[in-house]
Amino acid sequence: MKNTFGNSLQITIFGESHGPYIGAVLDGLAPGIDINDEFIKKQLLLRRPSGDISTKRVEADEYSIVSGAFNGKTTGTPLCILIPNTSQKSADYGENAERLARPGHADYTAFVKYGGFEDYRGGGHFSGRITAALVAAAGVVIPELNKKGIFIGTHIKSVGNVNDRDFADYRADIDYLSSETFAVLSSEAGEKMQEIIKKAAAEGDSVGGILESAVIGLPAGLGEPWFDTVEGVLSHALFSIPAVKGIEFGAGFSGVNGSGSEFNDAFFSENGEIKTKTNNNGGINGGITNGMPVTVRLAVKPTPSIYKEQDTVELNSGENRKLVINGRHDPTIIHRARIVVDSVIALTVYDLLAARFGTDFFGGRN
Ligand SMILES: Cc1cc2nc3c(=O)[nH]c(=O)nc-3n(C[C@H](O)[C@H](O)[C@H](O)COP(=O)(O)O)c2cc1C
Question: Using CA atoms, how far apart are residues 175 and 161, in angstroms rounded to an integer?
């Protein structure tokens, strides 16, 4: 069991979908970081369901920071964020309740691993609900990264056969995305994507898509090869997000079909700074940042809860059964997952920076 991630900055997450609280503990934060409540609330709002392409389970996400903060700043001791669950609807979850494993969910695998003792209500510890804790925790560190000139942004690259435009002016695009609830760079593409999502919803089905992220302003030299390469730690962290099924950096899988002369990123020097003319390597060479934008794409699977009848097994009896899921579910989670992706990248990048420059690189002493 591993619910803690990171080295210099460690995050522990806890809670279940239908328990009283979810939350996170951040250990290793620098003292003197301003806690920007407005920013944390804004980030949580971007994760919350909204509009007719989202679940109707809407949580207030009224978090409290119960340790590690004093007079609006971090103290440097473990910072614990608690978020109450208020909108959970528990159907019949008594001891003898049926356990119909929902395809695409962790019901069966959690049953095997935790021997039936798991709190399975609403997906329990595997619910997307837990990602609110990641978003709140990252809300503490993102403004601190911004102060260092580091900015992170994610857009919905594709849904079905509809593609958003590529990042162009990274800084302007990241600023634009930071307040969008459906994060696309082309509103025309966004409308077409939402049509696809609504069509799936009308059919009781769901869709996935591809998210693309960029991190700008990172200094060259971050990353701890062999095993804590930048690709390695980012992949590890990003695969913790429920429904993420694939990852690629830079030009990615399709980029490797050309020749070395096409793929190599030629260097040039400008005002004493070394840069590359292209960025097929996604800002990373040998697992170490080279100072170019770090670019990463994630495959997000179609939401597993669908309204169509599915075949399954009742876990206690082992009987073959039919399953029809009722309740409140998103026909896609891609638009809500993107702020979770930004958050996980932020926590990982903070950790890499603290590993290289020390935990006091951030906060009030600098
Ligand atoms: C922000 C967020 C919200 C999610 N909401 C839902 C949801 O409403 N319904 C659902 O079936 N899955 C939802 N998921 C995905 C499931 O939690 C996930 O697919 C499931 O736990 C199995 O994990 P896996 O897909 O990583 O194998 C959500 C994921 C995220 C990141």
Answer: 26
234 phi/psi in degrees, rounded to 5: -65, -45
Average pLDDT over residues 331-335: 96
Type of residue at 271: N
What domains lie within the chain, and their CATH numbers? Answer: 4-361 (3.60.150.10)
Give 128-186 pLDDT, tens digit per residue. 999 999 999 999 999 999 999 999 999 999 999 999 999 999 999 999 999 999 999 99
CB atoms inside a 10 Å sphere around CB 233: 23
CA 26 to CA 79: how far, in whole Å? Answer: 5
Q: Would the pLDDT of 51 be above 90?
A: no
Are 33 and 144 within 8 A, CB to CB?
Answer: yes
Our answer on whether the CB atom of 128 is closer than 6 Å to any ligand 1 atom is: yes
Q: What is the DSSP string of 301-352?
A: PPPS--SS-EEEEBTTT--EEEE---S---S--HHHHHHHHHHHHHHHHHHH
- Biggest CA-to-CA distance, the chain: 70
- Is the distance from the beta carbon of residue 17 to the nearest atom of ligand 1 less than 6 Å? no
Best CA proximity match to 156, nearest among 184, 191, 116, 194: 184
Q: How far is the CA of 74 from the centre of ligand 1 (A)?
A: 31
Instruction: Name the residue with higher pLDDT: 49 or 361.
Output: 361
- Of all residues in the chain, the percent with pLDDT exceeding 90 is 90
Residue whose C-alpha is closest to residue 79's, from 21, 38, 29: 29
Q: Does ligand 1 come within 6 angstroms of the Cβ of 336?
A: yes
Residue nearest to atom 12 of ligand 1 (CA): 303
Which residue's CA is the closest to the ligand 1 atom numbered 20?
105
Return the ligand 1 atom nearest residue 242 CA.
26
Q: What is the DSSP letter of 185?
A: S
Ligand 1 pocket, residue 131 CB under 6 Å = yes
Q: What is the pLDDT of residue 227?
A: 96
